[in-house]
Amino acid sequence: MAYQGEFVGEHPSMVETRRLISKVAKSPTRTVLIYGETGTGKGLVARMLHEESERANSEFIDVNCAAIPANLMESELFGYEKGAFTGAFAKKTGLVEAADGGSIFLDEIRELEPVLQAKLLSLLDTQEFRRVGAVRSRKIDARFIAATNRILSTEVRAGRFRDDLYYRLQVVAINVPPLRDRGEDVLVLAEYFMRRFNARYGRLIRAMEPAVRDVFLAYPWPGNVRELENLLERIFILEEDRQILVRHIPPRIMREVDGGAPVPQGHQDTGNIGTADLKAEEGLDFHARTRAFQRRMVERVLAGKGGVTAAAQALGISRHALRHQMKKLGL
């Protein structure tokens, strides 16, 4: 499976992240820690680490530590022997044992209870574990890939995560950059998802109106790549137009881009152009209206942030790119 091709982006931070993934994947290290905000693609990175390693022909076990109840987590991870507790009518192989020879991905590692943190530390140190109710330990050979959207050093200082486990996991750390720090990658990703959804839904949407590109660049994408993917899929399912239009974008996004200004009632038809703006733009063609929208957006961000550098950061573009855009708009 070509996961490397799905980790889309041309920003230097993404090029470096892909290089690091390939290097770590081919190394003998048994522990990798992935940092990243929700929706940045930590699970995809974990799969790439497995698929590009010598373990690719063995199992990749995906465990969401936040999704399994604490009272079941130990038996799910380590398995149990017959009669270990009420209801244990037969022995069960745990997820750790199932990953022998391959990789196990522990997503949201911070959610592990302290007792299980201690057991995991012992497993990482010895490569041995014991099923619940067992007398003897079992040896395994697996790569442990952990991920978190928290700053683990902060969790350690707050007493919510074991320091020894933190240092054991921190041998190799990969940081997945948030979408807002990746410049025009949002447009590269949008085109990638458009190709994917065209194939999935039998559509022929290959373009975005210019104002949509500006909105995508200005919006901070708190849900990161996942939020962008979900938005575009929703448009492909619900809208009938042959291109992505501003009126397809939800009001909550337009409010954020427009500096928190209320979205007028006519948003769905006007792309967040207010009554006064519409009156001022009467008689303008499509491209002139688009330019007017771009100018208002940049003016509002500049006014709100008080400087080009801060405004560029808020828009998710470089200072040079913002200067170029201002020159084009006559600002």
Describe the structure.
The protein is α/β, with parallel strands linked by helices and 331 residues long. It folds into two domains: 3-177, Rossmann fold (3-Layer(aba) Sandwich), CATH 3.40.50; 180-329, Helicase, Ruva Protein, domain 3 (Orthogonal Bundle). The protein contains 17 helices and nine strands. It has helices at residues 3-6, 12-25, 42-51, 70-78, 95-98, 114-126, 152-157, 163-169, 185-201, 210-218, 224-238, 251-257, 267-270, 275-280, 286-305, 308-315, 319-329, and strands at 31-35, 60-64, 79-80, 92-93, 103-107, 128-129, 138-139, 143-148, 173-175. Strands 2-5-8-1-9 form a five-stranded parallel β-sheet. Strand 6 and strand 7 form a beta hairpin. The radius of gyration is 25 Å and the shape is elongated. Residues 260-279 have low confidence and may be disordered.
Descriptive tags:
Helicase, Ruva Protein, domain 3; 2 domains; Rossmann fold; elongated; 331 residues; 9 strands; alpha/beta; 17 helices; 5-stranded parallel β-sheet; two-stranded antiparallel sheet; 50% helix
Residues in β-strands, percent = 5-15%
Mean pLDDT across the residues is 86
Level-2 CATH architecture of the largest domain: 3-Layer(aba) Sandwich
Globally, the shape reads elongated
**Largest pleated sheet:** 5 strands, parallel
Structural class: alpha/beta
Distance between the termini: 48 Å
Radius of gyration: 25 Å
Number of helices: 17
Helix content: 40-55%
Number of strands: 9
Q: Detail the poorly predicted runs.
A: 260-279
